[in-house]
């Protein structure tokens, strides 16, 4: 089931122009336990996005980790990626149903719902496989982004049957609180790919989920 693949550390790639560097960095994140990867490059042109997405698809397959493409359904289709992540603007243009028709069954569709629960309920109704809330903490990637309260995760967990992803300024030090509130996955860019040791940082994030599972089963 596609939804079961959305859990743990969700690595979102930074804007890196050199494809070899991007692959090396992402390999470290996967080696450290990242469970899925989102390719996101806002500064690249279409040719570079296609090149990097193809390379990441191959890398992620060696780790049996899904690769999600941010925004670009066409690139996801062309490269055989495992799904797409849609923002609020993307939904108005593309739509979850339209993305599903292009991607086919079995692919993952994620939707950003920021700090609002009702759009998440509607996204699930339309066939989304997971929803993402945030930003929960100050984020260097999206300065001035809307802030979400951690209580939103608990409320979402009660109303939704699909996985819930937390995003925005998440670090190994503050992620545990989000996981405890109900986040199935934490999406991380800067605290992961900006770390001196990407693999060991990924391992820190991954251990938080292991600790949560131990506490739940006690």
What does this structure look like?
- 46% of the residues lie in helices and 17% in strands.
- With 218 residues, the chain is an alpha/beta fold.
- The protein has a single domain (2-217), classed as TIM Barrel (Alpha-Beta Barrel), CATH 3.20.20.
- An 8-stranded parallel barrel has the order 1-2-3-4-5-6-7-8, surrounded by 8 helices.
- Strand 3, helix 3 and strand 4 (83-86) form a beta-alpha-beta unit.
- The protein is globular, with a radius of gyration of 16 Å.
- The model has no long low-confidence stretch (mean pLDDT 92).
What's the helix and strand layout?
Blueprint: E1 8-12, H1 19-31, E2 36-39, H2 46-62, E3 67-70, H3 73-79, E4 83-86, H4 88-93, H5 96-103, E5 108-114, H6 118-126, E6 130-133, H7 151-159, E7 164-167, H8 175-181, E8 185-188, H9 190-193, H10 198-217
Parallel strand pairs: 1-2, 1-8, 2-3, 3-4, 4-5, 5-6, 6-7, 7-8
Helix pairs in contact: 1-2, 1-10, 2-3, 8-10
Detail the poorly predicted runs.
Answer: none
* Average predicted confidence as pLDDT: 92
Q: Beta-sheet strand percentage?
A: 15-25%
Q: Which CATH class?
A: Alpha Beta
Number of structural domains:
1
The CATH architecture can be named as: Alpha-Beta Barrel
Question: Main beta sheet: strand number and arrangement?
Answer: 8 strands, parallel, barrel
Specify the number of helices. 10
Question: Helix fraction?
Answer: 40-55%
The global form is globular
Distance between the termini: 27 Å
- CATH topology name, in short, is TIM Barrel
- Order of strands across the biggest sheet? 1-2-3-4-5-6-7-8
- SSE series: EHEHEHEHHEHEHEHEHH
Rg over C-alpha atoms, rounded to the nearest angstrom:
16 Å
């Amino acid at each position: 089931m596609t939804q079961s693949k959305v859990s743990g550390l969700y690595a979102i790639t930074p804007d890196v122009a050199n494809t070899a560097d991007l692959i090396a960095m992402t390999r470290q994140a996967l080696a450290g336990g990242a469970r899925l990867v989102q390719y996101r490059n806002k500064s690249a042109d279409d040719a570079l996005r296609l090149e990097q997405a193809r390379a990441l698809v191959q890398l992620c397959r060696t780790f049996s980790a899904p690769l999600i493409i941010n925004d670009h359904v066409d690139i996801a289709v062309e490269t055989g990626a495992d799904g797409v992540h849609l923002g609020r603007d993307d939904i108005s243009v593309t739509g979850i149903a339209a993305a599903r028709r292009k991607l086919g069954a079995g692919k993952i569709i994620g939707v950003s719902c920021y700090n609002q629960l009702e759009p998440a309920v509607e996204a699930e109704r339309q066939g989304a496989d997971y929803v993402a809330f945030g930003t929960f903490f100050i984020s260097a990637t999206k300065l001035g982004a809307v802030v979400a309260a951690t209580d939103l995760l608990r409320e979402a967990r009660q109303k939704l049957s699909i996985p819930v992803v937390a995003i925005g300024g998440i670090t190994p030090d503050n992620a545990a609180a989000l996981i405890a509130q109900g986040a199935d996955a934490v999406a991380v860019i800067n605290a992961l790919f900006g770390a001196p040791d990407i693999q060991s940082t990924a391992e820190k994030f991954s251990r938080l989920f292991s600790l949560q599972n131990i506490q739940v089963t006690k």
